[in-house]
Amino acid sequence: MSAGGAATLSWLLAAVWLSAAAALGLLAALIALRAARAAFDGWRGRRRAAFASALDGLITGRPDAARGLHPRLWGDAGVVEEMLTQAALPLTGPLRADIARAAQDLGLVERRLRQLRAGPAHARAQAAERLGLLGSSSAVEPLKAALSDSNAEVRRAAVRALGRLRDPSALPALAALIGADREMPGEPVSQALLGYGEAAAPVLLGLARGPGRGRALRLLGRLRILAAAPLIAEALAHDPDAAVRADAARAAADLGHPDAAARLRSALSDESAAVRAQAARALGAVGDPESAPHLEAALDDSDWWTRAYAAQALTRLGEPGLEHLRRVAAGADGPPRRLAREMLDALGLPR
Amino acid sequence: MTAWARAFVTSVDWLVLAYFVGLHGAYLLFLLLSAFALRDYMRRLRYGAYDLLFQNPATPAVSVLMPAYNEAVNIAVSVRGVLNLNYPAFDVIVINDGSRDGTLAELKREFALVRTERDFEGRLPTRAVRAVYRSLSAPNLTVIDKDNGGKSDSLNAGINAARTPYVCAVDADIVMEEDALLRVMRPIVEDPERVVAVGGIVRIANGCRIAHGRVVEPRLPRSLLPMFQVVEYLRAFLGARTGLSSVNGLLIISGAFGVFSRLRALEVGGYRTDTVGEDMELVCALHARLRESGRAYRVVFVADPVCWTEVPGDATTLSRQRRRWQRGLLEALALHRRMLFDGRYGVLGWLSYPFFFFFEGWGPAVEIAGYLSVTLSLLMGWVDASFAFAFLTLSIGLGVTITLCSIVLEELTFHRYRAWTDLARMTLYGLIENLGYRQLTSLYRCLGLWDYLRGRQGWGEMRRAGLGA
Question: In chain A, whose CA is at the least distance from the CA of B410?
Fold first, then answer.
């Protein structure tokens, strides 16, 4: 063997030994991991059993039951927190407040607040999420501060948490995010505000002419705030932004207010297909029989969604709408007839 | 002549050595990337708030597209599993691709189908649609019966029929996790502007206990070939795809389960019907279109087990599957060859594409050539026996190390196989797969390469035991 070949061989052998050592190390790590997990699961199960009766007491309305947790809490904060948050999720009212108080008394809230203030990004996000689940009002201010965290995940988690807490003092801070935070898609802010119900109306009405007006109008519609009807109608007719007009039409659909019918009928000839489609959908929700001829005409719209929503809307107008559908179903072949027939078939009605 | 032959064979030996070093180096890099990506993913699971995602008004609607060709054995179980998904807004479109085994009759019987007229919005060309059915028992189920045109053609018909912003292409022989759609849609909900496609981990259903269209007890397969494939899938999904996804370099989303933006899929012309690598081709086409137009986008891989599939249990079916996969891979790569070492495609041009081209595409040929040349070199005395033995041991050692790393990642993350015997068996098969199974699949892939070179078409039959079996 040449000198070069011998050198290569020695390199190869070194690599063999290295890979063998790595494989053995990984094997040992696997066994250790599995053993550690088994031990941890066993310990967790035993701790859960130990706390179960105290937590049952809490959930069934005996707040003093939490006292039973204290002497044994050392090292078990994670287990107790997990059990408390799971228990709290389906609860509302005084029982949820009891759990929040217990979490506060046990120091669980303080532990998460420390993480929210000083932990790494993933820990801050987790802390925010848990604080929302634990339901303690003392977390509201730190969570409001977390809305301007440098990390988008933390901000998102803080929004969700404030949505769960439903503390009125957080409403302006949440509403200010509408249309402002571009790194928070998926509407967690809308979802959080919806959780507040009618309490969010004044703040949203104040936003209905600003940069986030489209979303504010949609939320007002979903919350069925009748005071928003004039604002919705005005935006539908005059807003220069087609996306806002479409949002206004969706809001009108959710609101279902008959006063909007005339404006919605006009919107069926809007230049934007999205507005026409949403207007057709809204006319079905409003349920004004006078809209039937307009919806029948919309069955021949160039946009598929407008046609589909118009057909759906006609079925929601009752007999006047169905009459128009039947007429189209018996008419000349084309997309309107096919759509009308499908709608009637779907309802199990004769053509 | 002998000198020439010796020089040639020795060159092949060195090429094979370089190939193994490169392949394992790439795998180690992907594993490293995967480890970081999985750490972040597991952390995010802790503040995932899936309950809110379920109630979120912005969670977009999805059409689950399920092409079915001769799937009468599994179709009812699969469709029922999909219909019971935990997701706020979805419908299911089953596309019967001219099956000859009573798939449509089975669907009609199980789901009370009635014929309907339906206007398709999409305009992708497909084979003739014979009829469209809706279900009386499941209002969100539509069945399209069409002439046989292949899986891509069926998926295109499904894209045409879908009315939702996202489509989820699934195989008819899979069992989905209840929260599969919630998990894969989360990246889209959080970043709808940029995320155009999402894939998830496919696991092996052979041996699992399945009830009511769900895997109720994950178990390892009892037979040899599926067991090897468990280890192989762990390595491919946890070890490689997760890592590639973390640098937006994912070129494959499994055809068994993948979510795509319907508009983007229409923009690139849907699935190509002239390749059996249609799933990879679509992902490549999306990458190419979006990179070329300079748009910000992401193709994401969710490191969560989302569905379970039955894998081949016999050598003949495995051979057909691997030959088809290899041909599909090479076809997709050939269609997008402009990506190779092209700076416009970033990490795709410099990492993903070269990896798939050199190691996955042509690698099997190098591997088989290596086995032959090393054997010949030994017989002729052209290479030192200790050298050959060291090389063989190293390639096995590195293969085992990479497999063990993937098993460690599984242990640290999803931990689906709970018994100690499962761990022992996975480790054992990780060790012995290098002593036969790897060579067997390399041979099948080589045959696939040959099929590609001589322009073979078609899918080949897949024999199934049935998920309920």
Answer: A30
- Name which of B252, B82, B87 is nearest B171 in CA terms: B82
∠ CA A121-A123-A127, nearest 5°, is 115
Q: Taking each helix axis from N to C terminus, what angle separates A304-316 and A319-329, rounded to the nearest 10 degrees?
A: 130
Over its C-alpha atoms, chain B yields an Rg (Å, rounded) of: 22
Min Cα–Cα distance to chain A from B264, Å: 18
Q: B166, B261 in Cβ contact below 8 A?
A: yes
B62, B155, B292, B460 from B330: Cα distances, Å:
31, 21, 22, 17
Q: Fill in the DSSP letter of residue A194.
A: H
Helix (H) or strand (E) holding B135: strand B129-135
Other CB atoms within 10 A of residue A287 CB: 15
Q: Are A59 and A88 in contact (CB under 8 A)?
A: no
A34 closest CB neighbour out of B192, B386, B411? B411
What pairs with residue B114 in β-bridges? Answer: B134
Structural domain contains residue A29 = no
Q: Is the reported ipTM for this assembly greater than 0.85?
A: no
Q: Does the distance separating the beta carbons of B55 and A9 come in below 8 Å?
A: no
Contact B147, B98 (CB under 8 A): yes
Write the single-letter amino acid at B134.
Answer: R
Q: Which residues of B41-72 are buried (b: 16+ CB within 10 A; e: fewer)?
A: bebbeebebeebbeebeebbebbbbbbbbbbb
Shortest Cα distance, chain B CAs vs residue A54, angstroms? 25
Q: How far apart are CA A121 and CA A27, in angstroms?
A: 32
CB contact under 8 A, A16 and B121: no
| Sign of CA pseudo-dihedral A126, A132, A137, A142 | positive
Total count of domains within chain A? 1
Give the tens place of pLDDT for each residue, B316-367: 999 999 999 999 999 999 999 999 999 999 999 999 999 999 999 999 999 9
**For position B64, what pLDDT does the model report?**
96
Instruction: Annotate A210-259 with DSSP letters as a single string.
Output: STTHHHHHHHHHHTT-GGGHHHHHHHHHH-S-HHHHHHHHHHHHHHT-GG
- Structural domain including A299 reads 232-351
pLDDT of residue B469: 40
**CA dist., res. A171 & res. A135, Å (int):** 16
Q: Under DSSP, is residue B359 helix (H, G, I), strand (E, B) or coil?
A: helix
b/e burial code for range B315-350 (CB count within 10 A of at least 16 → b): eebbbbbbbbbbbbbbbbbebbeebbeeeebbebbb
Q: What is the CATH classification number for the domain harbouring A343?
A: 1.25.10.10
A266 in a structural domain: yes
B415–A37 C-beta distance less than 8 A:
yes
A133-142 pLDDT, tens per residue?
888 889 999 9
- Among positive and negative, which fits the CA dihedral B69, B74, B78, B79? positive
In a domain, residue A225? The reply is no
Q: What is the pLDDT of residues A282-328, one digit of tens each?
A: 998 888 889 999 999 999 898 877 888 898 899 888 888 889 989 99
- Which stretches of chain B score pLDDT less than 50? 468-469
List Cβ neighbours of B3 (8 Å cut-off, separation of 6 or more): none
DSSP B434: I
Tokens representing residue A301 in the block: 């719209």
Nearest CA in chain A to B418: A34
Q: Which of B43, B52, B416 has the most A C-beta neighbours within 10 Å, making it the best mutation to test the interface with A?
A: B52
Q: Give the residue from chain A lying closest to B135, CA to CA.
A: A346
Distance CA A204, CA A223 (A): 10
Is A3 domain-assigned?
no
Find the largest Cα–Cα distance for chain A.
98
Q: A27, B193: Cβ pair inside 8 Å?
A: no
